[in-house]
Amino acid sequence: MRLGFHLSIAGSLLRAVKQAEVLGCQALQIFIQNPRAWKWRPLPRSEIDAFVAARRIAGLGPLAVHLTYLPNLASVDPVLCQKSRERLIQELALARDLEADYLICHPGHAPLETESFQRVARTLAAAVDQIPPPPLVLIENTAGQGQELGWSQEQLGLIMRLAGVPLGLCLDTSHAFGAGYDLRHPAGVARLLGETARGPGLDRIKIIHLNDSRAPLGSRRDRHAHLGQGAIGLKGFRQFFAHPWLRPEAAIMETPKRHQADEWRNLLAARSLITTPALPFSRV
Ligand SMILES: [Zn+2]
Ligand SMILES: [Zn+2]
Fold first, then answer.
1. If you measure from the C-alpha of residue 174 to the centroid of ligand 2, how many angstroms do you get, rounded to a whole number?
2. Where are the domains of the chain?
3. 142 Cα to the center of ligand 2, angstroms
4. What is the predicted pLDDT for the residue at 282?
5. pLDDT, tens digit, for every residue of 177-205?
6. Is 2-273 a domain of CATH 3.20.20.150?
7. How far is the CA of 57 from the centre of ligand 2 (A)?
8. pLDDT tens-digit map of 24-59
9. Which residues neighbour ligand 1 (ion) by CB within 5 Å?
């Protein structure tokens, strides 16, 4: 399995590639706009070309783009729903120009009712119809905080069925744990992957977000922790990765960043967990 981090693009996109090279990562996840603002920064062609070339030379893949935080694909407010749809399409188009393999998004916040899932599905279908893969859009499971949708594999499967376009899955370990899937025990892993098989389908899992959790099991809270320093723990992760059904292309860490040493420590921990070889990535 290939390993990587979500890395900052503060300053320039190239920064993330350089940082990934320093760390010796094989995969990379980035935001391509300020994640906490609607304001759009157009990227000059020269910056896009330089990024694509540097990423190829570094042999980084898969390259995942994470949708920024403000769009809410499930919003009950028609204005915000439309704005979110336009933003998704805009980011998907830029991710395509950057030759990203995946664009990862959360289903959104809305009351737990069928119409909410239909809105997410319509938004995703409109975006994918306009910009077919690559990049493939991956829906990420959530911890189910507040009105967050998508904490169960059944819900994610429902969105995919309603959308009726090609979509994949990003499985976040800390979100799954917060949602009540006990990854530390074979029965919890079997429940998660069994529900995935019956819902979205196991072959849809492309990326694992490899994060430990500061929040307890089933707390419906999303608090990432360094690997081995959260409630899942290294023993728990070993149990999780031992399952033969789990065959993602890459595991990407979104662990807290305070010091450079944090990344090295997480990388060492991840390498001790993942014993399957990093298969060549054909698309770079
Ligand atoms: Zn995540
Ligand atoms: Zn999270």
1. 7
2. 2-273
3. 7
4. 74
5. 999 999 999 999 999 999 999 999 999 99
6. yes
7. 30
8. 999 999 999 999 999 999 999 999 999 999 999 999
9. 172, 209
